[in-house]
Give the backbone structure.
Amino acid sequence: MVSTALSTGIVVVMGKYKEDLERYEAGQLESEKRVKTCIACLWSLVVIMTGGLMLGFWEYEYHPTNSQLWMVPFGLIFLLTPAIIWFAVIFSEFCNSKNRHVVPASSSSGDSVHDLETA
């Protein structure tokens, strides 16, 4: 059942339709999060490939004469930085996921709310 107030523009959603709408919105947000994660992974891959190609080009073109040496650290930064960042993100997520499930065993008052971030 859906009731609307047209004059104010407020929509009141009730019943099963509300549950379906909430599930749809949650799925939509999860879908957007996946897309953003995939885009970040693709950009990281592009940066890594740019660094690797720059090092390969330097090796092929300039290594015999040891010229254009600026390309080596620049290529190494492009090659290694995304890998280090993704390692740090995954490692921190792994460490934080262990702390989320910790709940204090007992409390002095039975009706108090436990704060998981301080545990």
Summary: The chain has two helices and two strands. Residues 1-7 have pLDDT under 50 and may be disordered. The longest strand covers residues 2-5.
